[in-house]
Design goal:
Layout (H helix, E strand, L loop, with lengths): L3 E2 L2 H8 L9 E6 L3 H5 L1 H7 L7 E5 L5 H8 L4 E7 L2 E7 L2 E5 L4 H8 L6 E4 L19 H11 L8 H15 L4 E5 L6 H14 L3 H10 E3 L1 E5 L10 H5 L2 E2 L4 E3 L4 E5 L15 E2 L4 H22 L7 H5 L2 H16 L8 H12 L7 H4 L3 H18 L5 H15 L9 H8 L4 H9 L1 H4 L2 H19 L1
Parallel strand pairs: 1-11, 2-3, 2-7, 3-6, 4-12, 7-8, 8-9, 13-14
Antiparallel strand pairs: 4-5, 10-13
Helix pairs in contact: 5-7, 7-8, 8-9, 11-13, 11-16, 11-17, 13-17, 16-17, 17-21, 18-19
């Protein structure tokens, strides 16, 4: 078989579809990564009104990534990999791909009255906000973007700088309100980004900050679809006759819950299975603590045992027991009526899927920020309610023990971690990085310390 490049014209020929023109751009997305392509792009492609909602997606830093999308007219193959086989489909909702530094194009799109939504997938640390949710002024790129914006220039280094550049252009064009939809694993991610961006804008132009408060809706979301980063191109893609450099492998399961207003309109995402709710917190916490918390716990417990993937770690009895114990504490922190039994069963099945090769080393990146939201938050709530917090204490101890093995994972807070680890009381100092409140509780710190000592001794045997 001769492989053909994956382009809209070629796809139209294959399926006999003469109407191959892309949808008009009405969504801007920041963060052209695998998860976005498996999640937001997939939901938009499956919406009943998909033909009205094209996405212009900006990379983080990569120029090559944008060029690859241009070569394929924004098309890519999504492979849904279940335990028993693959399902293949071509996603066409990305109609324009742009290198992240091209803020002129970003501003031009934001001035378009048709554009109604800005979505983001940039990871927890990508916003460059402090634990208080304010711009990190110790970050050189944050300071540089602030200086450029104050001088009336566009900002291209940080997500907040780029987002503020877009909103500044929209305000000046007087084309109406817009929704900003962060899709990262942060509790109350809409409020989190609103607070950080508004504080950022206040340092540039208080009038712009006031306009943002009055005209920008920040939508909170819970996103769920395990999508490991991999450059593998499965045989099923070649068997279909496609030459595709942008293939994404994901699991069949997907979930998206949103809460907030869309003043300029939005796709009919609920026709693709998304849910719109009044209160996002129970659903985002369920996902953040049960799925993401388990991923981090499996990483910190599994890597020192020589395990490589989530599937290997969940099959390890000790790792599985740590997860189940943590989950028991988590569900006590969820409001009554938040379904969790079926979700836990589904998670075990998803984790056990050997064909989704989700490497622990990938999950290990930015561990400090993840621990803050996934472990420390549970411990704080358990203690505030007067309940036992030993499972979250053990989870924190597992992280601290993992750090002592020098995993070398990427972490923007690595300098702070190294300083805490070298202090006279490393356990207390490390806990303080993720929760000053927990670090101020000597009894809790002592519990974590004992668990860390036990774990260190067990690994030494």
């Amino acid at each position: 078989m001769t492989l053909s490049p994956l382009t809209r014209d070629e796809l139209a020929r294959r399926v006999g579809d003469a109407a191959s023109a892309p949808a008009p751009v009405r969504i801007i997305h920041l963060g052209l990564g695998h998860f976005f392509r498996a999640h937001q792009a997939w939901y938009t492609a499956h919406a009943a009104d998909a033909g009205q909602w094209g996405i212009a997606a900006f990379t983080g830093r990569s120029v090559a990534g944008a060029e690859a999308f241009k070569r394929q007219d924004g098309l890519f193959t999504l492979v849904g990999r279940g335990p028993d086989g693959d399902q293949l489909e071509v996603i066409g909702s990305v109609v324009e791909a742009v290198a992240g530094h091209d803020v002129q194009r970003l501003a031009a799109l934001a001035r378009d009255p048709q554009v109604a939504v800005i979505t983001l997938t940039v990871t927890e640390s990508g916003y460059r906000l402090t634990t208080a949710g304010l711009p990190d002024l110790d970050d050189g790129d944050v300071r540089a973007d602030l200086a450029e914006l104050r001088a009336g220039e566009s900002a291209a280094r940080t997500v907040l700088g780029r987002l503020l550049t877009a909103l500044h252009a929209r305000r000046d064009a007087a084309v109406g309100p817009i929704a900003v939809v962060p899709c990262d694993n942060i509790p109350g991610n809409g409020d989190f980004v609103a607070r950080g961006l508004t504080a950022f804008a206040e340092r540039v132009d208080p009038a712009l900050a006031a306009w943002i408060t009055a005209n920008v809706s920040f939508v909170s979301t819970s996103v769920d679809r395990i999508t490991p980063h991999t450059d593998e191109v499965p045989a099923v893609v070649a068997d279909a006759g496609w030459l595709d450099d942008l293939t994404v492998i994901t699991e069949p399961f997907s979930d998206w819950v949103l809460a907030g207003d869309f003043p300029a309109g939005r796709p009919d995402w609920e026709s693709a299975g998304a849910r719109f709710v009044d209160d996002i917190e129970p659903w985002e916490n369920r996902k953040l603590w049960l799925l993401n918390g388990a991923h981090s716990l499996l990483t910190f417990a599994g890597m020192p045992r020589g395990l490589d993937t989530v599937a290997e770690a969940i099959a390890d009895p000790e790792c599985r027991a740590l997860v189940e114990s943590f989950w028991d504490e988590v569900v006590a922190c969820l409001p009554d009526g938040t379904e969790h039994m079926q979700y836990r069963r589904q998670l075990i099945e998803r984790f056990e899927n050997p064909r989704i090769v989700h490497r622990l080393a990938q999950i290990a990146a930015e561990a400090t920020t993840k621990v803050e939201f996934r472990f420390a938050a549970v411990a704080e709530r358990s203690l505030a309610a007067g309940r036992d917090a030993s499972a979250s204490a053990r989870a924190l101890a597992t992280w601290i023990t993992w750090l002592s093995n020098d995993p070398g994972a990427v972490d923007v807070r690595a300098d702070a971690v190294a300083a805490a680890a070298a202090s006279d009381d490393s356990v207390s100092a490390l806990i303080g990085l993720v929760s000053p409140r927990l670090a101020s509780l000597p009894a809790f710190v002592d519990v974590v310390r004992r668990f860390a000592q036990d774990a260190t001794a067990a690994h030494a045997r």
